[in-house]
Amino acid sequence: MLKTLRNAFSIPDLRRRILFTIFVLMVYRAGVFIPVPGINLDQLKQLVDQGLLFGFLDIISGGAFKEFSIFAMGIVPYINSSIIFSLLVIAIPRLEELSKQGEEGRKKIAEYTRYGTVVFALIQSFSIALYLRNNGALLDNSWGQILLIMITLTAGTTFVMWLGEKITEYGIGNGSSMIIFAGILARIPTMGYSIGVAIKGGTANYIEVILFLAFAVLVIAGVVAMDLGERRIPVQYAQRKVGMRTYGGQSTHIPINLNSAGVIAIIFAISVLQFPQIITQLTLEPTHPVYTLFNSGFLSPKGWVYPIVYIFLIIFFTWFYTSVTFKPDEVAQNLQKSGGFIPGLRPGKPTEEYLTRIINRMTVIGGFFASLVAVLPIVLQHVTHFGNIQFGGTALLIVVGVALELNKQLTAQLSMRHYEGFLK
């Protein structure tokens, strides 16, 4: 990775792209420290430490939510809008037709995604403002304060979305991923400080720290293996003659990633789990039995049922997202049209059934591993003296995935310019 970066800086075009990306990320990090007025930060930090959704938002936004800055929601509404429109492209024929119209169609869908981002940001900021008011985190409980929070957070999210698009267009890597990546990396010094405070305060010892770091290294190795792991299904193309020329006859493969859903399944799972908690807190009194069940009972984030449901939801959404984005019937049909076949299988229905079976197995394995990575830090938080590590696994999934993708893009750019071959 370091060698790739060094070689990339030797090329003026790539150097400009990298420096532009760094500059935009610095602008984003500067906005993290601009607070929204009228917030009781002490009460808010307690809510972030207790709530699954708020804790996740704080991780994704790089600590902006705990400080309740103008970028408190980060890029999350844009991610939600992108996921929803990716699913709607398959469900709505009009959007599916647009997706097949090339660059113009994709630009139109991107425009719809931006509009959806604003809608999601307004809804999410409104629910956050109500939640903070009901939990005593607002210094002013008037509707004017709620409107101020909605406008400020929505404007901040829109600006972050614009920054992400500029990184994608003029920088290196996917803009949304790079913003999340930078936010998580910015939390590493805070994590180190928390460990130092725990040791100094006597709540943790050096053995626990060493074991914790060893566990983190093992998790990183597992995440790297999972991100790089894939099943390669061999494909053979039949030979055909057109005049004096012979076409086809080559062998290739269809790569199927172990966990193609990545962190998207975790985002879906957290949203589903947090929905009953938010609804009960907005509509019910704290003394209501249903309120107690989802906020302090066995279905709350501190209950024993919560991690189990969390695991099953991650596995389910991994399978669901992969099934929606990878269609075995279309792959089998395209192979048949182009004269390709999987050795030992007839084209058409047998190929489709085989691909479906492989996809189901791969997604269950990948989803189970992703759920372990996401849940194990939650378990460790209850058995060790280290707090606020419930999203350590999720953060590792994001950081490792983005780092590997960034390395692939830089390597591809260098290969196109034959730079690495020139060095050798």
User: pLDDT below 50 for ≥5 consecutive residues: which ranges?
Assistant: 419-424
| CATH class term of the largest domain | Mainly Alpha
Helix content, binned percent? over 70%
The counted number of beta strands is 5
The average pLDDT value, as a whole number, equals: 79
Q: Largest sheet, described in full?
A: 3 strands, antiparallel
- Tell me the name of the CATH homologous superfamily of the largest domain: SecY subunit domain
Rg for CA atoms: 24 Å
Descriptive account of the structure:
- The chain is mostly helical.
- 71% of the residues lie in helices and 5% in strands.
- α11 (206-228) crosses α17 (392-416).
- Strands 4-1-5 form a 3-stranded antiparallel β-sheet. Strands 2-3 form a two-stranded antiparallel sheet.
- The protein is built from 18 helices and 5 strands.
- It has 2 domains: 1-186, Orthogonal Bundle (Preprotein translocase SecY subunit); 203-424, SecY subunit domain (Preprotein translocase SecY subunit, Orthogonal Bundle), CATH 1.10.3370.10.
- The chain has helices at residues 2-9, 12-31, 41-50, 52-60, 76-91, 93-99, 103-134, 143-170, 175-186, 188-200, 206-228, 264-283, 289-295, 305-325, 328-337, 349-383, 392-416, 419-423; strands spanning 230-237, 240-242, 245-247, 251-257, 340-341.
- Mean pLDDT is 79; it is low at 419-424.
- The protein is globular.
